[in-house]
Amino acid sequence: MSYKILIVDDNEDIRDLVQGIADSFFRDHEKPKFFQVSNGLEAINSCFERMYDLIFCDINMPQIDGLSFLKSLRKSESKNSETFVIMVSGYMGVIQANMDQGLENTYLLEKPFTDKSITMAMNIWMALRLKKSKGEST
Fold this sequence. Notes:
Elements: E1 4-8, H1 12-25, E2 33-37, H2 40-49, E3 54-58, H3 66-75, E4 84-89, H4 92-97, E5 106-110, H5 115-137
Parallel strand pairs: 1-2, 1-3, 3-4, 4-5
Helix pairs in contact: 1-5, 2-3
């Protein structure tokens, strides 16, 4: 199975860094397909075009910020309204102040992040996927 992963960040270097770390997470599995966009508006459009298994999203972006994207995603009828999202931010206070606004099925990852912190977030995502698939098969 090839996972589809969307990376949303206005900084191309950060998108490439996240992709490299996430790609190494799958070293013993089929490599995922990565898709990159630079803002929340592009991300919303992309989420109506294709189904993703995981979304990485920065908070501070132009046009539509990460929290607005997440709120729109959770309320949308897109294929990704329940997709696990790893929110990345150097502004955790902003996120924590909005905890009641669409952050279910979401992991908060504080910048500066490391390979280890992204791997930990992806392990949580994978564990939730396995738990969900076991629940569906019983």
